[in-house]
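Continuing the batch. This is chain 6 of the set; chains 1 through 5 are on the previous pages. Same settings as before, nothing changed between runs. Recording input and output for traceability.
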Amino acid sequence: MPDARGEDGSSDTRRRLLERGHALVSEVGLQGLTIGGLAGEVGISKAGIYAHFDSKNDLLRAVLKRAVERFVEEGVEPALAQPPGEARVRALFEAWLDWTEASPVPGGCIFISSAVELDDRPGPLRDYLVDVQRRWASTLAEAAERARSRGHFRGDLDPEQFVFETYSVILGFHYYRRLFRDEEAGARARYAFESLLERSR
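Output for chain 6:
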């Protein structure tokens, strides 16, 4: 019979581990998350953790992957349901800002904090995060390109530059909101993005 503490490898236990791991990584960073620390937080043994993950790196990758899945489910998929063009571009930005602003974990956006932590640390985790961010940048660039092809944006718009400036707005928002505790950060970010849209039309 499975252990009452959930050390049977069940999907519910794995989901609980990933959700708690996500919250912890947002506060202590990827390298700060340990097998023992997570076991203590969730109330199972280290062996119970290893029933789900082969190693710490396996756990960290799974935590990042689960965060990606949540972001796609909660933000990207609804935004992509908007008509191609400026409406979709705006919806993708709002989904990203909402994810960063109303993060379900105490330490804020796991992707931004992990990027800072991993940018100079070559290895599988960095490679995975780079791949995720490149795919996200491609999604934004494609949305901008479709807005251009439909006449919503000017014909000489550079989608890659548009994505760069959108990233800059989000990173600026994160800095002002998380570090400065600026309550106007969301309004500032939306104003900056509206200026970008105006220059893009």
